[in-house]
Amino acid sequence: MPLLEGSVKDPSLAEAGRSRIAWAGAYMPVLAQIRDRFEIDKPLKGVRIGACLHVTTETANLMLALQAGGAQIALCASNPLSTQDDVAAALCEYGIATFAIKGEDHATYYSHIESVIATHPQISMDDGCDLVTAIFTKHKDQLGELIGGCEETTTGVIRLRAMQREGVLPYPIVAVNNAMTKYMFDNRYGTGQSTLDGIVRATNVLLAGRTLVVVGYGWCGRGIASRAAGMGAHVVVTEVDPRKAIEAVMDGYRVMPMDDAARAGDIFVTVTGNYHVVREEHFRLADRPRHDRASRLRRTVRVARRTQDLHSRRRAPHQPRRG
Amino acid sequence: MDMSFSNQALVAAYLAKHHAELDKGRVYDVPIEIDEEVARLKLSSMGVEIDTLTPEQVKYIASWSEGT
């Protein structure tokens, strides 16, 4: 079926989007090589892909690689706040039906997911399981059309494994998150850097000498802890997994329960994939006023990628390429 | 995101080719061949070279009969 045109904030932003997509592409040499191969081999010829990802410059390069491989693609946002409107506009021009507007409300966000599902995808590409869940709960009639899916992030994989356990996973999904070339690098170095970048931009605090509490010592937590320590912060780690807690201790950090960390910390970063991690009672324990500020940082992981892209946008027009 | 999205692209192509061999209700890990291919391409883009095992080393590391 023909793809829909898309829904974006302002099509006239496309030119700015194109140049930023090209900028990000210059730092994605592996994907560029794959795109070249795809141009020749067309491994996705005629395959309809529905993607629910952060609509950013990096994602745009993935979309273009898939398109080069012959896929027909529809894309919506996996987070209503991370969309870059100029990128969304450019993607529509490139022939990728994009349904994403930065700051879109709840209803629009879900209507955009519906628009992607309306293109009858055969492969779903998720970052947090939203597409799979919507297809499974509301579009069971389309399940037969789906040949498989991929999931980008840890939290999505946890949910998919829960679906597998309950015997309701409707089609095979590959956990891209679990590739070593994903979690060891994206999570540790990418999120590690961009989370601190987001905190510094949002607060202007000097990290040196502050106590930064990292809640969860997975790959993201490891990256944030080591980078924060490198900038002179005193790092405290909280964990629920005894093995990771030992690792944090031996990596040189103080490990303690959240009740104690709430008293000790200046800045809190949760990287657990779970919710209600830093609760109201913890904020009461922390009697210093600056915790109000920290409370706005509770969702730093989500913020992380957005700020990473802001960073490349700021740099793009003026500064020479690195290396 | 270069390696992460390279995995996505290669996995999409893998699904297009191999979906009939996969169980419906299962979460799969990325095939190690794809993971290693992405790493090889990344190293090559960085101009970094690495070693390979000699045939003797391959045999030694896979056997139980030789003492360690």
- Amount of helix of chain B: 55-70%
* Unreliable runs of chain B: none
Strand order of the biggest β-sheet of chain A: 1-4-3-2-5-6-7
Count all strands of chain A and give the number.
Answer: 11
Amino-to-carboxy terminus distance of chain A: 45 Å
| Count of discrete alpha- or pi-helical segments spanning 4 or more residues of chain A | 14
Rounded mean pLDDT score of chain B: 94
Largest sheet of chain B: none
Helical coverage of chain A, percent range: 40-55%
Radius of gyration of chain B, CA atoms, in whole angstroms: 17 Å
Order of helices and strands of chain B: HEHH
What general outline of chain A do the C-alpha atoms trace?
A: globular
Number of H/I helices of chain B: 3
> Can you give the mean pLDDT of chain A?
88
Q: State the secondary-structure class of chain B.
A: mainly alpha
Strand content of chain B: under 5%
What's the SSE blueprint?
The complex is a heterodimer of chains A (323) and B (68).
Chain A: E1 6-7, H1 14-26, H2 29-41, E2 48-53, H3 57-68, E3 72-77, H4 85-93, E4 97-99, H5 106-117, E5 123-126, H6 130-138, E6 148-151, H7 154-165, E7 173-175, H8 180-203, E8 211-215, H9 219-230, E9 234-238, H10 242-250, E10 254-255, H11 258-264, E11 267-270, H12 280-285, H13 291-295, H14 300-315
Parallel strand pairs in A: 1-4, 2-3, 2-5, 3-4, 5-6, 6-7, 8-9, 8-11, 9-10
Chain B: H1 2-18, E1 27-29, H2 32-46, H3 55-62
Helix pairs in contact in B: 1-2
Q: How would you describe this structure to a colleague?
A:
The complex is a heterodimer of chains A (323) and B (68). Residues 289-323 of chain A have low confidence and may be disordered. In chain A, α1 (14-26) crosses α3, α1 (14-26) packs across α4 and α2 (29-41) runs parallel beside α3. In chain A, α7 links the parallel β6 and β7. In chain A, 49% of the residues lie in helices and 14% in strands. In chain A, strands 1-4-3-2-5-6-7 form a seven-stranded parallel beta sheet, sandwiched between helices. Chain A has a four-stranded parallel beta sheet with strand order 10-9-8-11, with helices on both faces. Chain A has helices at residues 14-26, 29-41, 57-68, 85-93, 106-117, 130-138, 154-165, 180-203, 219-230, 242-250, 258-264, 280-285, 291-295, 300-315, and strands spanning 6-7, 48-53, 72-77, 97-99, 123-126, 148-151, 173-175, 211-215, 234-238, 254-255, 267-270. Chain A is globular. Chain A has 323 residues and is an alpha/beta fold. In chain B, α1 (2-18) runs antiparallel to α2. Helices cover 59% and strands 4% of the residues of chain B. Chain B has helices at 2-18, 32-46, 55-62; one strand at residues 27-29. The termini of chain B are far apart. Chain B is flat, with a radius of gyration of 17 Å. The mean pLDDT of chain B is 94. Chain B contains three helices and one strand; from the N terminus they run αβαα. Chain B has 68 residues and is mainly α.
